[in-house]
Write a structure and sequence with these properties.
globular; alpha/beta; 2 domains; 19% strand; Rossmann fold
Length: 399
C-alpha cells in the first residue's frame, strides 16, 4: 500500500514567557518550535512586548514571533482582560491560518486568553503545564480555578513530569486521565558540553543558575553560603540570575566580607549559561518546588556534580549516580554540598564526558518534538472523526 502523506500542522505557540526573558518555559518553547520547523510544520509564537521589542521579529530558522503591544502587569504577565486581546489575537490566528494553538504555563494570562479566542474560532487546543501548585492558599485556589477553565476547553494536556501530571489532574479537575500526556523537557547537548580545563584547579566553585525568588529557595541559599565559606576557605560561589532576593545575597556578602568569594553575575543571556556552568565543579539547586528543572539537565550535560533539593519532579530527572538529592533544609543542603566537596578533594570525580553522552541519549529535543507531533496528530484525527459523525447525523436528519 502507498505510504500515507505526513500531516502538516500550522501551530501557534503562545505564552507570556519568551525570549528575551530567560527561564525553562522560554527555552522549552524555543527549542520545541525549532524542532517542529525541522519536521516541516509551520510554527509562530505569540507573546507580549518586552521593553522596546514590539511587533514581528524573526528568529533562528525563520521562527516568526509576534510581540504584541501589551505591557507586562505582574510577574511578566499581562493584565487579564479577556476581551481586550481578542481583536489582535483573532487577526494573527486567521492571518497565519493556524490550526492548532499550543499554550504554555499555568501562570500565563496571555495563553489562557488566547485559548478562549481560539476555541471560538473552532481551532484545536493543546496546553502544556510547567509548574506545580498547592491547594490551600488563596493564590493557588484562584490560579487552579483559572487553570480548570483553560483545561476544560483544551483537547489535550501535556505535563513535563509524572509528578506534574498528578498535580495537574487534581488541580484542573480533569475527568478523563487519557487527556493528559507526560512529555519531559530536554537539553541541547550540542551547546551544553563539558570543558574541564575551564574550572580553576586550586579552588572549588559552586555554581547557581536560577531566578533569585522565594520559589527557587533563595532563602536556603542565603543560609548555606556563609557556612560553606567558613568551613572551606578554598570554596567559592558563582551565582547567575536576578530577582527580588538578590539584595539579600548582597547583604550576606557585606556582612561576612565575602566579596572575593561570592560572585553575582546578575541575569545572563541564554548563550552565556554554558560558559558560566563550565567554570564550576558543583551545581547547586535549592528550589522549593519544581515540575522539572531544565537547569539541572544543562549542568549535568556540562559534567558538573549536581546537588539538589528533593522536591516535585526533580527525582525523576536523573539517576542517583548523577545527582545528590536532599531535603529542602539548610542543614541537609550543607551536608550534601560537603559530601560533593569531599568527593572532589579525594579525586573521586565523575567522568564529565561520559555523563554528557548519557544525558545526550536520555534527553533530546527532537524526540520531544516527535512525541508532541503525535499529540497534534491525535487531536486532528479526533476532529476529522467528529466531523464525519456530524455529517452522518445531519444526513439521517433529512429523512
Amino acid at each position: 500500500m502507498p505510504k500515507k502523506d505526513k500531516k502538516r500542522h500550522s501551530i501557534c505557540m503562545v505564552s507570556d514567557f519568551f525570549y528575551p526573558n530567560m527561564g525553562g518555559v522560554e527555552s522549552h518553547i524555543f527549542q520545541l518550535s525549532q524542532c517542529l520547523l525541522e519536521l516541516s510544520h509551520k510554527v509562530v509564537v505569540i507573546t507580549h512586548m518586552y521593553n522596546n521589542r514590539n511587533g514581528v521579529r524573526y528568529m533562528t530558522n525563520g521562527l516568526k514571533v509576534y510581540y504584541i503591544p501589551l505591557v507586562p502587569f505582574y510577574n511578566q504577565c499581562v493584565l487579564p482582560t479577556v476581551l481586550t486581546t481578542l481583536p489582535i489575537i483573532r487577526d494573527i490566528l486567521i492571518r497565519e491560518q493556524i490550526t492548532i494553538v499550543h499554550g504554555h504555563s499555568a501562570f500565563s494570562v496571555l495563553a489562557e486568553e488566547t485559548l478562549y479566542h481560539a476555541k471560538l474560532l473552532g481551532l484545536k487546543l493543546v496546553y502544556t503545564d510547567h509548574s506545580l501548585f498547592g491547594f490551600a492558599d488563596a493564590s493557588s485556589i484562584l490560579t487552579n480555578k483559572l487553570l480548570e477553565c483553560g483545561m476544560s476547553i483544551s483537547d489535550h494536556v501535556i505535563c513535563v513530569s509524572n509528578t506534574c501530571r498528578e498535580n495537574t489532574f487534581l488541580r484542573a479537575n480533569i475527568k478523563d486521565p487519557r487527556k493528559i500526556s507526560v512529555i519531559p523537557n530536554a537539553v541541547d547537548s550540542s551547546i551544553f558540553t563539558p570543558e574541564p580545563n575551564t574550572a580553576p584547579f586550586n579552588r572549588i566553585v559552586i555554581v547557581v543558575v536560577s531566578r533569585l525568588v522565594y520559589r527557587k529557595g533563595t532563602d536556603l541559599l542565603i543560609g548555606i553560603i556563609p557556612e560553606i565559606c567558613k568551613k572551606y576557605p578554598n570554596v567559592d560561589f558563582l551565582i547567575a540570575g536576578s530577582g527580588p532576593k538578590m539584595v539579600l545575597i548582597e547583604e550576606i556578602k557585606d556582612r561576612y566580607k565575602l566579596h572575593d568569594r561570592v560572585t553575582l553575575l546578575g541575569s545572563i543571556p541564554n548563550q552565556e549559561v554554558r560558559n558560566c556552568l563550565v567554570k564550576g565543579h558543583i551545581f547547586l539547586n535549592t528550589s522549593l518546588t519544581e515540575a522539572f528543572c531544565i537547569a539541572i539537565l544543562e549542568a549535568a550535560s556540562c559534567g558538573l556534580q549536581v546537588v539538589s533539593t528533593k522536591v516535585g519532579g526533580i527525582p525523576e530527572i536523573l539517576p542517583n549516580s548523577m545527582i545528590t538529592l536532599c531535603e529542602p533544609s539548610v542543614s541537609d543542603l550543607i551536608t550534601k554540598v560537603e559530601f560533593a566537596i569531599k568527593r572532589i578533594k579525594t579525586g573521586d570525580k565523575i567522568d564529565s564526558f561520559m555523563m554528557h553522552e548519557e544525558i545526550r541519549k536520555m534527553y533530546n529535543w527532537r524526540d520531544v518534538a516527535k512525541r508532541t507531533e503525535k499529540v497534534y496528530n491525535l487531536i486532528s484525527e479526533m476532529n476529522e472523526k467528529n466531523s464525519l459523525i456530524d455529517k452522518i447525523i445531519r444526513y439521517f436528519k433529512l429523512f
